[in-house]
Amino acid sequence: MTSSGPPITFDPIAISDVPRRLGDLKASGGPLVVRSPASGEVIGQVTASTAADVVGVVRGLRQSQTTWESDGLEARIGHVLRLRDWLLANAHTLTKLVQDETGKPWQEASIEVPLSCDFINYYCRNAKSFLAGSHPRPHSLLTASKRLSIVHRPYPVVGVISAWNFPFVLPLMDCLPALLAGASVVVKPSEVTPLALGEVVRAWTQEIKAPPVFACAQGAGEVGAAVVDHVDYVQFTGSTRSGRAVAIRAAERLIPCSLELGGKDAAIVLADADLDRAVNGVMWGAFANAGQVCLSIERVYVEAPIYEAFVDKLAERVRSLRVGPDDQRYQADVGALATQAQMEIVRRQVDEAVAQGARAVTGGHPVGAGTFFEPTVLVDVDQSMACMREETFGPTLPVMKVRDVDEAVTLANDSPYGLSATVWTTSRKRAEEVAHRLEVGAVNVNDAFSNFLCFPLPHAGWKSSGIGSRMGGAQGILKYCRPQVMTTPRLSLRRELTWYPYSARVGRPLLAAMRLLASRGPRAPRP
Q1: Helices 195-206 & 73-89, crossing angle to 10 degrees?
Q2: How open is the CA angle 381-383-384, to the nearest 5 degrees?
């Protein structure tokens, strides 16, 4: 395929002095060094590539895809299950790579491999029913003699551009359903975290001996732009600004895309909430992965009667969190930020909030030798502050007192983002009422992130948080397919009633029958 139009530029927040390469794909650049954000130590060396290399990679994937699709679903499931077995056998090594390139605590890094395997099991178990064709019943006289069929055919080459916050599980959640659907896949992880996923793609052909339908195009913005310019479907995870660039380019090429973008998720704590559970849950939802989660709780609205008690308990428990590097002994709760650029975003938002009258009741400063930032609770904030309006993606939590649930809902909806929200209350009825008023794609009641662990549910953002979704049961794999329909005559006639030659003898009875059937449709309500 050819491309045209202006080049894509990606959000520079994700681009720093980190290595870039194109996996095992005849890279043409020189060696670059990968460093851990937690310590600054060298953890590997990779080879850079150029965007031009992507063209050849996609060409090869396109050639291999036809055989991959024709081999059938059972063969594809077999390869993916063998990959799962390899992931489990190499879980410790892969987890160490994830931890080294992200600075996560060991517990957070170690969940990515088993969660990926659980995801593989779910889709391999259900792929046959999800991809099964269907035969709708004809709905009218004109089509009564037809057998109707719908089958699902994959897009030939799917491009997955992923983020650095979960560099292992997130791209696999996008790549594996596409492979099961019968597509070839080129994945571009963030240039900040190139190691763990690159090892998986290497294993696909070298260890699993699977067909060459899975390639890794690692690099910075120019490589991501080349992916968008040459694939048939794009799944992008990243900033809203970069996502808009992807959407514009995809629209120019008339290819579909799915975008998971930024968030500014709100927690609403009602006066009847279980205070201990709310404090513990909001704290974890805000500071897990150092706040670098698309579903992170980034602002809290607490009803006035329990505001003081909530803030006191929250500050006390946040002070007990352990910040720093972790050497697999579970000695840290909050890890490093992925880049120095992300550190500066967090520092700026906190400093601006304090300058405008907010108070940090705990935290508020970088700490340690790496890109660590103290878990920070801000009070006396207002809706105009950057910490309440801009995506932070860091370990900060502004807490605001509200009069009642109506004010909380109004403020929660006062955002360009709409990824998810949480509601904390002991009343299921109240929780459902509040959830139905929130302008977000998911609402977790008395919990955080739980929707992301439920594979039958779509993970989708509203407003500037994206378009399309990942997961969602059947939709999570059908999104990588195009519906192909077929009509087949049930009777072998010389000609259909609607064919030439037209005549009153056939046309008038046919028209009368169609009018009669149409008149028997649903009745309009009386005014």
Answers
A1: 130
A2: 100
Q: pTM value? A: 0.92
Is residue 383 within 8 Å of 414, Cβ to Cβ? Answer: yes
Rounded to an integer, what distance in angstroms lies between the CA atom of residue 257 and that of residue 249?
10
Reading the block at residue 523, the tokens are 């009745």
Q: Which residues contact 416 (CB under 8 A, 6 or more apart)?
A: 240, 264, 463, 464
Tokens of 516: 């009669």
Rg (CA), the chain: 26
Tokens matching residue 102: 């992200």
Residue 373 CB neighbours (<10 A): 25
Site of tokens 């109004």: 410
The Cβ-side half-sphere exposure at 440, using a 13 Å CA radius, reads: 30
Contact criterion met (CB below 8 Å) for 394 and 346: yes
Could you tell me the pLDDT band of residue 414, with boundaries at 50, 70 and 90? very high
Q: Pick the closest to residue 262 from 421, 395, 391 (CA basis).
A: 391
| Beta strands at 466-467 and 257-260: parallel, antiparallel or unpaired | antiparallel
Here the contacts of 353-359 (C-beta below 8 Å, separation 24 or greater) are: 353/378, 353/381, 353/385, 353/386, 353/387, 353/398, 354/378, 356/382, 356/385, 357/382, 358/385, 358/387, 358/398
The residue type found at 157 is: V
Strands 469-471 and 458-460: antiparallel
Q: Is the pLDDT of residue 24 over 90?
A: no
Sign of CA dihedral 449, 451, 455, 457: negative
Cis omega (within 30 of 0) on the bond before 189? no
The active-site residue, picked from 69, 101, 260, 390, is 260
Residue-range domains of the chain with CATH: 22-261+473-481 (3.40.605.10), 265-463 (3.40.309.10)
CB atoms within 10 A of CB 500: 7
Other Cβ atoms closer than 10 A to 102: 30
Q: Please say whether the beta carbons of 16 and 345 come within 8 A.
A: no
SS3 state of residue 311: helix
Alpha-carbon span 20 to 501, nearest angstrom: 66
| Choice among 294, 303, 374, 481 that is catalytic | 294
Per DSSP, 334 falls in state B
In whole numbers, what is the pLDDT of the chain averaged over residues?
92
Active site residue 124: no
d(CA 155, CA 254): 13
294 catalytic residue (yes or no):
yes
pLDDT of 318-335, one tens digit each? 999 999 999 888 999 999
Q: Tell me how far apart the alpha carbons of residues 378 and 299 are, in angstroms, rounded to a whole number.
A: 10
Count of residues in the chain: 527
